[in-house]
Specification:
It is a single chain. This protein has four domains: 154 residues, no CATH class; 50 residues, SH3 type barrels; 82 residues, Alpha-Beta Plaits (2-Layer Sandwich), CATH 3.30.70.100; 155 residues, Jelly Rolls (Sandwich), CATH 2.60.120. Helix content is 48%, strand content 18%. It has 15 helices and 16 strands. The strands form four sheets. A five-stranded antiparallel beta sheet has the order 4-3-2-1-5. A hairpin with a 4-residue loop joins strand 7 and strand 8. Helix 1 runs antiparallel to helix 2 and helix 3 packs antiparallel against helix 4. The longest helix is centred in the first third of the chain and has 32 residues. The protein is elongated and about 115 Å long. It starts with a helix and ends with a helix.
Length: 504
Amino acid sequence: MTTEFAGFISQLPIALALAGVFLVAGFLVTRLAFRESPVARFLCQLASFGGFTFMLLAAGVLPSEPTPRVGDDLTLFMISGFKIVWWVAAAWLVSGFFRAALVFRRQPRETRFLQDLFVGVIYAAAGLAIVANVFDMPVGGLLAASGVVAIVLGLALQSTLGDVFSGVVLNLARPYHPGDWIILDGGTQGRVIETDWRATHILTPDNDLAIIPNSMIARAKLINASQPMRAHGLTIVVRLEPTVAPSGGRVALQAALLSCNRILRTPVPTVVVRGLDAVAMEYEIQFFVSNVEEGPDAQTELFDLVFRHCASAGIRLAPPSGSPVPLALRVARPEAADMPRRLLDHLSIFAPLSEEERVQLAPKMKRRIHKAGDILVKQGSVAQALFILSAGVLVAIQSAGTGEEEAMRLAPGDSFGEAGLLAGAATMFTIRALTKVTVYEIAKADLAPIFEQRPAIAAELGEILARRVAVGKARLEEFADRDKPDETLATRLGQRVKELFGLA
């Protein structure tokens, strides 16, 4: 044994012991103290690896060189073991740096698949380095043998490998990201949760988890409803009887779009006449919602508004296309004198009224017509009547700081003035005509006897008011930080109604 190697052996136990201390301490600290912080974990890994490497070099152990085959077997075994550990720790450090870099780029979740792939390549390279530098074996023969094994495994795992490589392509092309809403051939759609080695996980509208193999997604026609913007367009078709000119039907449908609260104002919704014959006028309505999940609710609201505005204009829906016996066409535009009774018959809040009570109340309803831009009720005023919109579109506006914000829009059949009528309270909205409107007014004095005999009507109006106030506050909070909505509003309104009208 040479003098240099003898000195090396004498220093070895202490240096290796200190190297082991650095390594174990770093491993424990990263696992126990920094599990949720990739950046702090990487810094701890760097310090631990630096101390470990320094002690190995101080002991004369070079991980990149084969171990001299001199000395006893235990010493050779220890040196080889620490070299193996050094290469594994180096791979551990590089993978930690990669994950920390992704945290800085705010992409730890989106790149989970690539993280796994990159880390796998790093550890495979470390394994080859161990074979070459620790065991002093040629890597070429190993790679040749592994190629034969890879061919056998590739044939046996062809389907699984297809999913894996498709996943690589999808992660490189990035046609979608976690959080995006995608639509696939066959009707499968939902929000992307994550993409792993084999499949993409999608949360469907039914709140079920669909696991789609990556190879199927790579071959399928895919629509990303969240890119390049989250606004999603929808189209519906409405068929109306040709009792008015096509422009008249278009005006009614545009009013329905104008009064819909769930659709976006930009891009501007459109109404196009798609067909005309002796049976029907066919219109195509296109509108946009803030995201694809809002689509069903917005479509439901719009269909309801189409019905209400068409009924207000006296336009009936046409029979289905290809109907063998078309319905007899007739002009169903209601007369102004009949409208009060029609409102009482069709509005749910007046359902408890008897036939005699409706006959007595209808003549007391006063008809008012306002042009676009007129203010019907000012914020802070106390209304002394119940107002029912018969035709047109109204907008409810609330002051917000130095400006005004739109809270909601009202369509035919909607009412306002409940706050002053029920509780003697000031209204929190300014009601303005967005188009030419027709409004029917019922004085408080005419409704008071009805409230006493029909408490259900007062209670339902109180619920409508509570919901409207809550919606108004929720919309305003989208633009500025405000106090939380009064959760006891409905309770206080109900109590105030009981006090005013002596309801049990």
